[in-house]
Structure formats: structure tokens, C-alpha cells
User: Which sequence fits this backbone?
């Protein structure tokens, strides 16, 4: 159907859960013509209900002849900017997510919680009489009597069932309409009072001659010369609320309420902005990228100090052009540290999204960004989608960090979304990296990205190797020794510590320095195995083995957290030859404490309460002499506070043996970051790696300190296998409590996918599977998966709906 003027709105309805761009067309009634725009929040009829929706497009064409009209505009301003509407649609398609969930990324946080419903008599004649129950009659009578009833009113009048199902029946019958109001919560605030000049002829001394408390309060306010918190003003004057009220009545004082905005930072009028000294050569290259009319993404590699200095310069450059910047960090702690750093080095109004703790504060932050009151926004993943209308710069800090991947629907990756938002906004995007991701560095080689390397980059010391349009990275300062556990002598309990690591650890502690030992598993032992029959004790809900935790005297599943008492005998053969195999942080800490009983050994992993782990790290940072920190990847959260003379990689081979092509990159990024944090690139720093795989490219690259060594081996392997970044990849997982049902569904879907690939002639698309997932059973459900590879795989996502999970741009295949 076609009309002479745009009269249809394409709407995402607040009840759709289908994968892909699921939208519905509605007629724009004459009274709303000109009011309905993309990004608008509207009320629409949907089947027998009336629901909120977000307009995504205005058109003169509808794919169906019969369309229903939009009922009302809920909020007159546009809820979402046009470019963010387009970004949401791209996220829905690229990540195989319901468009509603993608749109909610751009909307105010917790939008549905801030929509208040009310019921009013229908404005139209219902026509035929509809038989109603007594409770429904009470509901209808009450609505007609009060003209506007809330759900709480209806529950009080007729009970919960009539107030929910009954009122829906009245809506279907055309007797009642629903109204929705968007009502944002107000953040906590404080009252401020200001002295006002008298509006009458007598001077204040005459007006307040018989009111000494009022006079004292007025004198305090006049002396302050600026608004004072009410409590502070009353305390200074020794006055009470009655004196304040009297001054307000007399027109001698004004009171205003100021909402708390803990997320805002500066600029203070008396503050001197400290422009950091940035690498001049790197800044020249970065500035050239910012100046381009269609800037290419930039990979900025260097140590944290130099990257952050360049961010500050780039932000200042962008602000001077009247535009805004958003910086996305992998976690809240890094975001807050970055915000604190930039607050004293940039002149604009800066907001730290992590400091908006309550719903009201998060809404206040969203509204301030939407109103253009924020120049620089720093935060974790969701900060990328803030409604900044004058966006000039996007920075993704530590782009290689896996925390930039969202783990629930929509399963977006910040890096890809930032690039798409920059394209829609016509702004620059900078990917800051310590150890660039394989995909980003491949973009440099393919000349899609520009590469900027700071002169102090830790990984660039002895040689410079040309790579694409930029420079590669090679050996950092310090020493790395690789210990082959296949031939090395081990000492102490559990056979964990090899002789070379023990000797270096002893010398380090005796020399008055500290050490950090890393192991990539928590607990005591990875497996409990019967030496008689070979049975391994596994989780009853998952296919994962139960991990022994001696401290908790329990077997724990690290997938679903199921716990069991360690058995005394094998549950299969009844034998008593149960043995522990493999080890975790708990076992390493115990073994080191046994080897060095006079030293202080602390453990940092997710089994240790945060306060206890933080206290241990604080003590280590204050005085590392004679201390040993044993930990898992949780060590990374404490940044440079884990600086030490010695880093021991006790165990990293499990990650390298994992049947996941992305695992080597995860291990390499983790170990390189850990090495930088612990040894700091100093010449006296030493890293010892214990491994059963000394020839593995990850171990060899770590020994050489060469990113290029790792990248060359990794990219060659991926090219041979046709894996990302050479072909897009998505992982589709189906889970069901019945094993046979799960297998039937995944095989049915595989046949359908093959048929659609053939019918659409998607020659570049391939399927791997179906096969059981690496973790074949999790939380009582059996999991099967299909890997989709190639361009246009997003066209297949709508075929996989209920029960399926789609993960495009995955960072792991478990």
C-alpha cells in the first residue's frame, strides 16, 4: 500500500523477542502527523494488547494493506538519536539479536521500569455488548467513575486477577484504553539557599530588627556570596527551619534543590588544566588521523602512560572543534582510573559512568548526555551507546581485553560496535592496545586501520620490523626463562614447583624482593580420578569435572557451582585409590608456603573474598619484601599494585591445549599483560615459565617478547583453516534437558540451514557441525552447536529462534 505522503511508522514493539529485524507497520493518524519521528516512544495496539514501542523508520509504504493506527506519543522528545536507531538495527542483524534488545542498549537504562500505566474509558463506542464478570464490572465502573485508574487502584477495587486479566479483556472489548507515561526517577538531592536583595523600601536591619535568628541567617548568606547547603547555613547561623521559611516568605532568601550528580567531573573555574607531555611523533600521526574527512580506525599501541597522554591530547583537540568524546574501558576500575586521569588534563565537563550507582543517577547521566551537558564520557561497555549527539572521538581502551564482549543478548563486541558508530557519526575511533588483538593487527596489515606506535612501547626495543603501514613489536626489557617440565626436577608438595623456579624464588625472597606466581585455575586439583578403574568424578549437572577445594573440604563445579563432599571410595568400583590430578591456585599457595614457611604467602582468586584479596595486594604493594602472591587471572584487576621482581607462570598449558582456536590468543594476551604489570619492563625483572609445551608459538613469543612471532604463527594457522579474521564466524548453540531432543533439533536446523544456503546461493557460507559443545552438558541441559562461517551468515540467524543462542564475533567456543 502506498500513500502520497509518509503516513506509516515502522515500530519495534516492546514485547517482541524474535531474532532479527522484527518490526511492525502502523498508520500515523492525522493528529500525530509531524510529531512521530524515528527514535520516538509511542503507544501502539499489538494483537489484543496495547504496548509501548520505538519508531525506527517513517515511510510512505507499508508491506500490508491493513494497518492499525498509533494510539499516542508517550514522550514528545525523541528517545533515541537517529544514528543510534541505525546502530541498534545493525546490532540486531549482525549479532542475531531481537531488535528490541538492541534498541534497549540505546534507550534510557531500565526503560520498562520507568513506564507507568493507567486505564481510561475508551474514547470510541465499543459496539456490541460484552458479557462481563462481576469483578470486571467493578473494574469498568471504577475506571468510568474516576476517569483514570492506576493498576494499584484496580487491585484494591477488584483484586489482582481482575486488575490484570480482567482489564486486558476490557481492552480487547474496546471498553477501556491504556495510557503510558514515562516518568524518570529523580536522584537524591540537597537544598541550597541564597540571600536575595529586599524588594521593599525598609532596609534589612529594620525588617529583621525583631528577628535576630533571621538576621543572623541572612548575614551568613550575604557573607557567603554564593548558594550554601541549607544545613550548613542553618548551622553557621544557629538558626532553624522556621527562620529560613520566614526569610523565604519575606523575599529575602531563595531555596533551590540540586540533584546529586556524582558522575560529573569539572571543570572548576580555578583549576589549571595540566596538559600531559605526549609522544610528539605519535601525536602527529594521531592528529593526522583525526583531521581526515573520513578517518580510518587507528590502532594505538604503547604503554598505558603514553596511551593515556595521547588520549588527553586527542580529547582536547576534539573539544576545541565543539565535539564530544566517549572512552570505553574494559572494566569499571579502569574506567574510573582513566576518568580521574583525564579530569585534570581536559577542560570539558567529564562524566564517569561508573559513579552513577542508582537507577536515578544512571537516568540523570543519560539525560545529561542527551542534553549535550557532557563533553567527555568515560565508562565500561554500555557507555558506548550514550546519546552524545556531537560525537567526534571514540576510544576503546585495551581493545584486546575479553571484557569488551557482552556475555548476554545482544552479544555485541565493543570493538565492532565502536567502528560502526564511528562510521555513522563520521568521527574518529582509536583502539588503544598493550598487545593488539589478532583481528585489529590484521586490519593494520590489510591497511584498513592505521597504526600508531608510541616511542616508549615496551614491546619495541631492539629491532623494528615493517608491518603493513605500521611497525611491529619485538623484545621488551627483562628476562624470560622457559622451564621444560618434561625434563625438569620438581620439588615440594604436589610436584608443582620446578627446581629452576624454586631457586629463583628463593634468591628473590632472600634478596628482599617479592614474587608473583600465576596459575590459570583455582582450587586444589583439577581432577579426582580413581587409579583402579580410571573413573573421573564429574558434576551431576554438567560434563565438567569436579575440582577439589581442600580449604572448603568440597568438590566444586566451576561451571554451575554445584558442590559435593569428596568421596572416600570410588563410586564406580568402590576402590580406595582416589588420586588428585592437576593443580590450582590453592595447591600452589600451599606448596609454596610449605617450601618457604618463614615467608608470607597470600592467594588472590575468586574463592577469596574481595576484601581479603584487596588487603593482601595492598600489603604486597606497600612492602613486597619476602612476600609471595599466588593468583589466577584475578591478579590483573589490581593493576600495577602487583609489581614485583619475579613473575612465575606456574601453569598455562591447560589454556593452550583447549580445543578452541581462540584459546592461544587469550593465553598470550593474559601472559603479556601480566608480565608488564608484574615486572614492569625493567631490566632486572625476571619471568619464569613452566610448561610441557616449550615449542608452542605462545611460549616462544613470550620468551622472545615478540608480538610478531605470535601474530605470524597465529594468522597463518587461521588462514589455513579459513577462520576469523579471514571469514566471519558465529556460534549457534541449542540446549535442552533431554539429550535426544537437543540432538534432533540441532540436526533439523542443520538440514534447514543447508537448504537455505543452497536456495540463496550463499556460496561463501560454510557450516561446521552439528556436534556436542565443548562443555556438552551445563546446568542440567545438553548442548549442541553449529559453527557458521563466511559472509552473509547473518541472513541465517532468523532461522534459529526459540532455544537457540547465537554468538557472533565470539571470543571463546566453550
Assistant:
Amino acid at each position: 500500500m502506498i500513500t502520497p505522503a509518509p503516513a506509516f511508522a515502522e515500530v519495534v514493539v516492546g514485547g517482541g523477542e524474535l531474532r532479527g529485524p522484527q518490526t511492525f507497520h502502523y498508520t500515523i493518524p492525522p493528529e500525530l502527523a509531524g510529531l512521530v519521528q524515528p527514535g520516538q516512544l509511542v503507544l501502539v495496539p499489538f494483537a489484543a494488547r496495547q504496548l509501548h514501542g520505538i519508531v525506527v523508520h517513517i515511510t510512505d509504504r507499508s508491506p500490508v494493506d491493513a494497518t492499525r493506527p498509533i494510539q499516542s506519543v508517550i514522550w514528545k522528545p525523541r528517545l533515541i538519536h537517529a544514528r543510534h536507531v541505525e546502530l541498534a538495527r545493525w546490532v540486531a542483524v549482525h549479532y542475531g539479536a531481537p531488535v528490541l534488545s538492541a534498541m534497549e542498549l540505546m534507550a534510557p537504562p531500565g526503560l520498562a521500569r520507568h513506564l507507568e500505566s493507567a486505564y481510561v474509558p475508551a474514547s470510541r463506542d465499543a459496539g456490541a455488548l460484552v458479557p462481563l464478570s462481576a469483578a470486571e464490572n467493578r473494574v469498568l465502573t471504577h475506571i468510568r467513575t474516576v476517569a483514570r485508574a492506576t493498576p494499584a487502584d484496580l487491585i484494591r477495587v477488584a483484586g489482582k486477577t481482575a486488575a490484570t486479566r480482567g482489564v486486558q479483556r476490557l481492552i480487547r472489548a474496546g471498553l477501556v484504553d491504556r495510557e503510558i507515561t514515562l516518568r524518570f526517577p529523580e536522584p537524591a538531592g540537597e537544598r541550597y539557599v541564597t540571600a536575595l536583595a529586599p524588594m521593599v523600601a525598609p532596609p534589612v536591619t529594620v525588617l529583621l530588627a525583631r528577628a535576630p535568628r533571621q538576621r543572623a541567617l541572612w548575614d551568613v548568606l550575604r557573607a557567603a556570596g554564593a548558594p550554601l547547603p541549607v544545613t550548613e547555613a542553618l548551622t553557621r547561623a544557629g538558626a532553624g527551619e522556621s527562620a529560613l521559611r520566614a526569610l523565604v516568605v519575606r523575599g529575602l532568601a531563595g531555596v533551590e534543590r540540586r540533584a546529586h550528580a556524582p558522575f560529573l567531573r569539572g571543570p572548576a573555574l580555578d583549576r589549571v588544566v595540566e596538559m600531559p607531555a605526549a609522544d610528539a611523533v605519535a601525536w602527529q600521526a594521531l592528529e593526522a588521523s583525526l583531521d581526515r574527512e573520513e578517518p580510518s580506525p587507528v590502532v594505538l599501541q604503547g604503554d598505558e602512560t603514553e596511551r593515556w597522554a595521547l588520549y588527553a591530547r586527542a580529547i582536547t583537540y576534539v573539544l576545541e572543534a565543539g565535539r564530544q568524546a566517549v572512552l570505553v574501558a574494559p572494566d569499571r576500575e579502569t574506567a574510573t582510573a582513566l576518568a580521574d586521569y583525564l579530569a585534570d588534563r581536559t577542560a570539558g565537563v567529564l562524566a564517569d559512568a561508573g559513579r552513577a550507582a542508582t537507577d536515578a543517577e544512571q537516568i540523570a547521566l543519560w539525560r545529561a548526555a542527551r542534553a549535550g551537558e557532557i563533553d567527555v564520557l568515560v565508562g565500561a561497555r554500555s557507555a558506548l551507546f550514550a546519546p552524545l549527539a556531537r560525537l567526534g572521538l571514540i576510544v576503546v581502551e585495551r581493545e584486546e581485553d575479553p571484557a569488551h564482549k557482552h556475555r548476554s543478548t545482544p552479544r555485541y563486541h565493543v570493538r565492532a560496535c565502536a567502528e560502526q558508530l564511528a562510521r555513522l557519526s563520521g568521527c574518529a575511533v582509536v583502539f588503544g592496545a598493550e598487545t593488539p588483538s589478532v583481528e585489529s593487527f590484521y586490519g593494520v596489515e590489510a591497511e584498513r586501520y592505521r597504526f600508531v606506535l608510541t616511542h616508549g612501547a615496551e614491546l619495541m626495543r631492539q629491532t623494528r620490523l615493517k608491518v603493513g603501514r605500521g611497525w611491529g613489536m619485538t623484545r621488551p626489557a627483562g628476562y624470560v626463562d622457559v622451564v621444560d617440565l618434561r625434563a625438569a626436577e620438581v620439588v615440594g608438595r604436589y610436584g608443582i614447583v620446578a627446581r629452576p623456579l624454586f631457586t629463583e624464588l628463593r634468591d628473590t625472597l632472600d634478596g628482599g624482593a617479592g614474587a608473583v606466581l600465576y596459575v590459570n585455575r583455582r582450587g586444589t586439583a583439577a581432577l579426582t580420578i580413581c587409579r583402579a578403574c580410571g573413573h573421573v568424578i564429574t558434576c551431576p549437572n554438567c560434563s565438567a569435572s569436579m575440582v577439589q577445594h581442600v580449604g572448603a573440604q568440597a568438590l566444586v563445579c566451576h561451571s554451575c557451582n554445584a558442590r559435593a563432599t569428596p568421596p572416600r571410595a570410588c563410586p564406580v568400583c568402590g576402590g580406595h585409590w582416589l588420586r588428585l590430578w592437576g593443580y590450582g591456585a590453592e595447591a600452589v599457595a600451599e606448596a609454596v608456603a610449605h617450601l618457604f614457611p618463614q615467608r608470607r604467602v597470600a592467594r588472590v582468586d575468586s574463592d577469596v573474598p574481595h576484601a581479603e584479596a584487596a588487603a593482601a595486594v595492598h600489603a604486597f604493594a606497600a612492602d613486597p619484601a619476602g612476600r609471595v602472591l599466588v593468583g589466577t587471572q584475578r591478579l590483573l584487576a589490581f593493576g600495577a599494585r602487583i609489581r614485583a621482581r619475579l613473575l612465575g607462570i606456574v601453569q598455562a598449558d591447560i589454556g593452550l591445549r583447549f580445543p578452541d582456536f581462540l584459546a592461544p590468543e587469550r593465553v598470550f594476551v593474559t601472559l603479556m599483560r601480566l608480565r608488564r604489570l608484574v615486572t614492569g619492563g625493567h631490566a632486572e625483572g625476571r619471568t619464569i615459565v613452566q610448561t610441557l609445551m616449550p615449542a608452542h608459538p605462545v611460549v616462544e613469543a613470550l620468551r622472545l617478547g615478540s608480538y610478531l612471532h605470535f601474530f605470524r604463527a597465529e594468522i597463518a594457522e587461521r588462514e589455513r583453516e579459513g577462520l576469523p579474521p579471514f571469514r566471519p564466524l558465529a556460534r549457534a548453540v541449542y540446549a535442552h534437558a533431554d539429550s535426544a531432543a537437543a540432538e534432533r533439533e540441532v540436526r533439523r536446523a542443520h538440514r534447514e540451514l543447508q537448504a537455505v544456503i543452497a536456495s540463496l546461493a550463499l556460496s561463501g557460507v560454510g557450516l561446521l557441525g552439528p556436534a556436542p559443545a565443548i562443555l556438552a552438558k551445563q546446568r542440567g541441559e545438553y548442548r549442541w552447536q553449529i559453527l557458521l562461517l563466511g559472509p552473509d551468515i547473518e541472513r541465517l540467524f532468523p532461522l534459529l529462534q526459540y532455544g537457540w543462542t547465537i554468538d557472533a564475533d565470539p571470543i571463546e567456543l566453550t
Notes: The radius of gyration is 32 Å.
